[in-house]
Write a structure and sequence with these properties.
about 80 residues, two-stranded antiparallel ribbon, about 60% helix, elongated
Length: about 80
C-alpha cells in the first residue's frame, strides 16, 4: 500500500503538468507519447521491484552488522515465536 501511495505522489506533478498543457492545448503528439511511455516504464519498474525485492511476511530483515571484526551482509531470517 505504501508503494502505491509513493507512485501516486510521484505521478501527481506529471498529471498536473499534463492538465496544464491540455488546458492550453500546447502539447504535441511527441510530448504526449513520451510522457505516457515514461509513466508506463515507471509502473513496470515499480512492479518489478515489488515482486523481486520483497521479504516474505514470515521473515524479518536483519541489516548488515559487524561480527568479530568482519561485516556480515544483510539477510532475511525466519522470525522466532516469543
Amino acid at each position: 500500500m505504501i508503494r502505491l501511495l509513493e507512485v501516486v505522489l510521484f505521478l501527481m506533478p506529471f498529471a498536473g503538468y499534463g492538465l496544464w498543457l491540455w488546458s492550453g492545448r500546447r502539447y504535441t503528439n511527441q510530448v504526449l507519447w513520451g510522457t505516457l511511455g515514461a509513466m508506463f516504464v515507471l509502473l513496470l519498474a515499480a512492479g518489478w521491484l515489488e515482486l523481486s525485492g520483497a521479504v516474505p511476511p514470515e521473515m524479518s530483515y536483519v541489516p548488515p552488522h559487524m561480527e568479530d571484526g568482519r561485516i556480515v551482509p544483510g539477510q532475511a531470517v525466519r522470525r522466532t515465536s516469543p
